[in-house]
Design a protein that fits this description.
Mean pLDDT of chain A: 97
Number of domains of chain B: 1
Largest sheet of chain B: 5 strands, parallel
CATH topology of chain B: Rossmann fold
Helix content of chain B: 40-55%
Low-confidence stretches of chain A: none
Number of helices of chain A: 12
Largest interface: A-B, 30 and 35 residues
Helix content of chain A: 25-40%
Number of helices of chain B: 10
CATH architecture of the largest domain in chain A: 3-Layer(aba) Sandwich
Radius of gyration of chain A: 18 Å
Shape of chain B: globular
Oligomer: heterodimer
Structural class of chain A: alpha/beta
CATH superfamily of chain B: Thiamin diphosphate (ThDP)-binding fold, Pyr/PP domains
Order of helices and strands of chain B: HHHEHHEHEEEHHEHEH
Strand content of chain A: 15-25%
Largest sheet of chain A: 7 strands, mixed
Number of strands of chain B: 7
Mean pLDDT of chain B: 97
Distance between the termini of chain B: 19 Å
Structural class of chain B: alpha/beta
Number of domains of chain A: 2
Strand content of chain B: 5-15%
Strand order of the largest sheet of chain B: 1-2-3-7-6
Number of strands of chain A: 14
Low-confidence stretches of chain B: none
CATH superfamily of the largest domain in chain A: Thiamin diphosphate (ThDP)-binding fold, Pyr/PP domains
């Protein structure tokens, strides 16, 4: 890790929204009784006239966001990933994506790293649900720097975006001036022994595995997949050709998310073995985030094990 | 451009009804019953009430209309064509593969359609968003949202009603096409839906109840809504499903069925006889 500092991407998101709000008067932020948890209360404090709390009605929130977007506003609609991609799926598909409206769906509390709230609040299927919808851009940033960049970047994209964020604090990976591009995976390291395609909170786990393996003279590369859709096909094929082993890891079901995306490309372009790490077609459970990472075998030690013996 | 003569507006509603029947007949599918019940409402909104210009369908300050009961697209398309948003000939393509007139309204394909709809229960939230935008920008436009009575069984309608009330959206006017029938039968039998007036009252709406086929009453209702400050309005329009065609009136079976050739001819003849000469 470049900087020895931890911050949750939901926190970075909340702060970036305030900065964006200062520059762009069309930005409207919505939430459904989760201003504190989604960190959108930071925006509320600065711009109360551009903040809408609809109470506990996520489907309604998505519809209001659609209406605002038809009038030229740039709505950022925030709630937990479960209630965005899950509860409001129809509203997102038919009311936002089909008419290609400029709504940013900001989904915090994704994955098992939600922790103590347990399975009902641990969304493990959202990448799968969202990436199959036409017009939808699907993003899942890995750290503070990338999240702040993404929040600004998506305000300039005309069309729907699903932004997957995390509750748990994770290390800051990138320097503030790091350059990213939507649709381009970020390569960390040149190792040829294995490629770890990681997304969101799993990127820092992959980097930790990379650092530990280097001590044993095993050199791997980490690919930070911040854009799940459109997926960077060229990078996937390049890594498949250049490295001995391919592993995907996500705090999400192994069905339909990052792992599936990578496999879809490789079956068509360069058939080879892929090890999919993630949640194995099951629901989550209560516990501390770091305990759950171990329980569901998606931590850096498991990655090291798969690199060596998978 | 605003038409004030009752007879003229009634004749426009009649033209809309003819347009509905022709579309559904040509497509051999579609939803005539609920389209026919809202024709008078659409005539009054588009030809007497709304600040709109077919030559400039995306004007920022225009009034908005959301057809939340999106399956009644034939009524909206016939209205838009009659108003001059597109050529009436295009109605022949309704629901056909080469046409932009989709089974349910698509704002990206049809000029004058302010929101894509179809999945029921979602339009009022969208209308709330539009009304909030108008308030934030001080654009001054009004937003109309037509709901089916069956449609308000969807919980999201009441979520949206809460928001409309919270934000005091007096620039928002919902209309309930209260024709008492849905696909499976009477709305009260199917879903236990009753006390519609009381429900909206409890959600903080200004209530206006009218005969939804009485042009004069509709005009007055929308004028009352326009001048009511501090709360959203709902016009509960008592209507007849299948209105204007004897064999379709008050028959749930005509919710989503096309007439055959004989029925089509009879329907058109009946409607032509209802044209007021004067």
């Amino acid at each position: 890790m470049i900087l020895d500092k931890k911050i949750a991407t939901r926190e970075s998101f909340g702060k970036a929204l305030v900065e964006l709000g200062k520059r762009n008067k069309d930005v409207i932020v919505l939430t459904a009784d989760l201003a504190g948890a989604t960190k959108t209360n930071l925006f509320e404090k600065e711009f109360p006239e551009r903040f809408i709390d609809v109470g506990i009605s996520e489907q309604n929130m998505m519809g209001i966001a659609s209406g605002l977007a038809t009038c030229g506003k740039i709505p950022f609609a925030s709630t937990f990933a479960m209630f965005a991609a899950g509860r409001a799926y129809d509203q997102i598909r038919n009311g936002i994506a089909y008419p290609n409206l400029n709504v940013k769906i900001c989904a915090t509390h994704s994955g098992i790293t939600v922790g103590e709230d347990g399975a009902t609040h641990q969304m493990l299927e959202d990448l799968s649900l969202m990436r199959t919808i036409p017009n939808m851009i699907v993003l899942c940033p890995s750290d503070d720097t990338q999240t702040k960049w993404i929040v600004n970047e998506i305000a300039n994209i005309k069309g729907p975006v699903y932004l997957r964020l995390a509750r748990v604090s994770t290390p800051v990976i990138y320097e503030q001036n790091e350059i990213f591009e939507i649709g381009k995976m970020k390569q960390i390291g040149e190792g040829k022994d294995a490629t770890i395609f990681a997304t969101g909170v799993m990127v820092s786990e992959a980097i930790k595995a990379q650092e530990e393996l280097a001590k044993e003279n095993i050199n791997i590369r980490v690919i930070d997949v911040h854009t799940i859709k459109p997926i960077d096909r060229n990078m996937v094929i390049k890594c498949a050709k250049e490295t001995k082993k391919l592993i995907t890891i996500e705090d999400h079901s192994i069905i339909g998310g990052l792992g599936s995306s990578i496999c879809e490309i490789l079956t068509e372009e360069y058939p080879c073995k892929v090890i999919r790490m993630g949640i194995q077609d099951q629901f989550g459970k209560s516990g501390k985030a770091e305990q759950l990472i171990k329980y569901f075998k998606i931590g850096y030690e498991e990655i090291m094990e798969k690199v060596k013996n998978g | 451009m605003k038409i004030t003569k009752i007879e003229a507006l009634a004749n426009i509603a009649n033209d809309i009804r003819i347009g509905i029947i022709e579309q559904v007949y040509n497509a051999n599918s579609g939803h005539p019953g609920g389209s026919l019940s809202c024709a008078d409402i659409l005539s009054v909104l588009y030809f007497n009430q709304m600040n709109i210009d077919p030559k400039n369908p995306n004007a920022r300050e225009r009034d908005r209309f959301v057809l939340s009961k999106g399956h009644c697209s034939p009524a909206l398309y016939a209205t838009l064509a009659r108003k001059g948003y597109f050529n009436k000939e295009l109605l022949k393509g309704f629901r056909k593969i080469e046409s932009n007139l989709q089974g349910h309204p698509d704002m990206k394909k049809v000029p004058g359609v302010d929101m894509t709809t179809g999945s029921l229960g979602q339009g009022l939230s969208v209308a709330v968003g539009m009304a909030i935008s108008s308030k934030i920008n001080h654009d001054g436009y009004r937003v109309y949202c037509l709901l089916g009575d069956g449609e308000i069984q969807e919980g999201q309608i009441w979520e949206a009603a809460m928001s409309a009330s919270k934000y005091k959206l007096d620039n928002l006017c919902a209309i309930v096409d209260y024709n008492h029938l849905q696909i499976d039968g009477n709305i009260e039998n199917v879903a236990g839906l009753k006390y519609i007036r009381e429900k909206f009252e409890a959600f903080g709406f200004n209530i206006i109840e009218v005969d939804g086929h009485n042009i004069q009453e509709l005009i007055e209702a929308f004028n009352i809504a326009k001048h009511k400050k501090g709360l959203p309005s709902v016009v509960i329009a008592h209507t007849i499903k299948g209105k204007g065609i004897s064999f379709m009136e008050e028959k749930a079976e005509w919710h989503g069925k096309a007439p055959n050739k004989e029925e089509y001819e009879q329907a058109i003849n009946e409607l032509k006889l209802q044209h007021i000469i004067g």
